[in-house]
Write a structure and sequence with these properties.
CATH superfamily of the largest domain: Vaccinia Virus protein VP39
Radius of gyration: 26 Å
CATH topology of the largest domain: Rossmann fold
Low-confidence stretches: none
Structural class: alpha/beta
Largest sheet: 9 strands, mixed
Shape: globular
Order of helices and strands: HHHHHHHHEHHEHEEHEHHEEEHEHH
Mean pLDDT: 88
Distance between the termini: 71 Å
Helix content: 40-55%
Strand content: 5-15%
CATH class of the largest domain: Alpha Beta
Strand order of the largest sheet: 3-2-1-4-5-7-6-8-9
CATH architecture of the largest domain: 3-Layer(aba) Sandwich
């Protein structure tokens, strides 16, 4: 681990010297397409070894081995000129209708070379060449480090759009328990966290080559933005997906809801839509009038209800706003509870998505085809002695063991579930009477209440006095200014 880890740290240190690379997002975008080409080239080496008829979709001069592999090769201004005026334009406009050609074209649509120093760029390339992605040790070590690189996006803006903590994705996939032969979709794929968890989950079930081929084809995904899309492609290749062309670079919501045919319905959906995202004008017209809104998370919830097969199951990350919102949100929640069995809501504490720590999040689990009779809630606590999550203390999969032990079996109506200090249930009648508000508090937690009146009244009077003093000072300053 240390060798690959040190290589990555060295690469990042080199890139920080380059005046063209501004911040984590650009550094990850740059590394994303460079790693993609190196991993793809190592993969082609394997394919050529086992298939004499294999033909690369890339022109010879575009293949990593022919412009990047030689440590003494093209560098400086010549390297910058090649990358900016030959390599990237050619990859963006690659011809051919094969799956891999279409994949490469989509992966490089929007890719940029941010580096301005060709000598530093050559140094980065030479370091990348120190990783052999055909060696299982290097690949697995790099996979763990790549996960850490993706976390860098949490300080690069709208982190919720890009990276869902691995503990959350693992828990959702574990509870949905996808089986070989089932179809899976993440309609807001990001960097591929749910899909890579799915792959690891399904590989435990593999017994034959045919089983492995099922994994290669059973999932699909759609990602709107270029940066997470190319990082996802790289992530999937790291996880042994030969041609990750079934994750498209597109806006899932741009397609009219009525155009999703029954043949496209899937057994399992797991996703974390962007929080607080607003879609561009006109997107809401793709949805029935009663569900029209520009809020991204709400539209994804409507979409998921549509694309699940009868009996299909979903796990989705949603902010508190969806749970308590009114208007269109109320109609969406009423439809969800009518068309699906929303059996479990796991309420996560502040800071799980620590790039957007002021947004509380929830894991919603539901099955399509039978209406909800009751909703079970589980309030996930902080670990003992911990009052928040942060980069050095993120949420861990081990923390979900109590939920797993409590979970039970949907087939028997979760009869083994019992209420405890973290878990409670609410009937559909109570939810309906509350206007479909799902933002329900734990009845077992200690209610601190508003406080003691004898204590609050003096505090309130002090506050009024301070407000009056401040108002008087401002008035005096204003009068003084007017007299000048």
């Amino acid at each position: 681990m240390s060798n690959v880890s040190n290589l990555i740290k060295t690469i990042q240190d080199i890139m920080r010297k380059d005046a063209g690379v501004d911040g984590d997002a650009q550094r990850l975008a740059q590394l994303g397409w460079m790693f993609f080409l190196k991993i793809f080239d190592d993969r082609e080496t394997q394919l050529e070894l086992f298939d004499d008829a294999y033909k690369s979709p890339l022109a010879p001069e575009l293949r990593w081995r022919n412009w990047a592999a030689d440590a003494e090769g093209i560098t400086g201004d010549a390297l910058l000129d090649f990358a900016n005026n030959k390599l990237l334009p050619s990859l963006k406009n690659i011809s051919g209708s094969s799956q891999i050609a279409v994949l490469i074209k989509a992966a490089f649509d929007g890719a940029n070379n941010y580096m301005k120093n060709g000598t530093l760029m050559r140094q980065v390339i030479n370091k990348i060449n120190g990783i052999d992605f055909n060696t299982s040790d290097d690949r697995h070590m790099f996979g763990d480090i790549y996960e850490k690189l993706l976390k860098d996006l949490q300080s690069a803006g709208n982190a919720g759009e890009f990276y869902t903590p691995r503990a959350a994705t693992e828990f959702v996939i574990d509870r949905l328990d996808p089986r070989l032969g089932e179809t899976f979709l993440d309609p807001a794929t990001g960097t591929g966290g749910f899909i890579t968890c799915l792959i690891r989950h399904l590989r435990k079930q593999v017994k034959t080559q045919a089983d492995e081929r099922l994994i290669q084809e059973c999932f699909s995904g759609i990602e709107k933005k270029h940066l997470p899309h190319i990082l996802c492609m790289t992530n999937l290749m790291l996880h042994g997906i030969d041609v990750p062309s079934n994750v498209r670079h597109d806006n899932t919501l741009a397609r009219p809801l009525r155009d999703w045919s029954p043949k496209e319905r899937v057994h399992v959906v797991a996703t974390a839509p962007p929080f607080g995202g607003m879609e561009e004008d006109g997107i809401e017209a793709n949805f029935p009038a009663e569900f029209r809104t520009r809020e991204t998370a709400d539209l994804f919830l409507v979409l998921i209800m549509k694309i699940l097969q009868p009996g299909g199951r979903a796990g989705i990350v949603l902010p508190d706003g969806t749970l308590f919102g009114e208007g269109v949100k109320t109609r969406i929640k009423e439809a969800l509870l009518t068309e699906c069995n929303l059996h479990t809501i796991v309420r996560l504490p502040n800071g799980v998505f620590f790039g957007i720590s002021n947004v509380k999040t929830n894991l919603l689990f539901f099955t399509k085809g039978t209406p909800t009779k009751e909703v079970w809630y589980y309030e996930h606590p902080y670990p003992p002695g911990q009052k928040s999550y942060n980069k050095s203390k993120p949420i861990r999969i081990e923390e979900f063991e109590p939920e797993k032990a409590w979970w039970g079996n949907e087939a028997d109506g979760f009869k083994s579930r019992v209420e405890n200090e973290h878990a409670w249930r609410v009937s559909i009648d109570q939810i309906r009477a509350g206007g479909f508000n799902l933002d329900l508090k734990n009845p077992h937690s200690k209610d601190e209440g508003p406080g003691d009146v004898d204590h609050l009244l003096p505090e309130y009077e002090k506050l009024l006095t301070r407000i009056a003093e401040t108002r008087g000072q401002l008035k005096a300053q204003l009068l003084e200014a007017l007299m000048r």
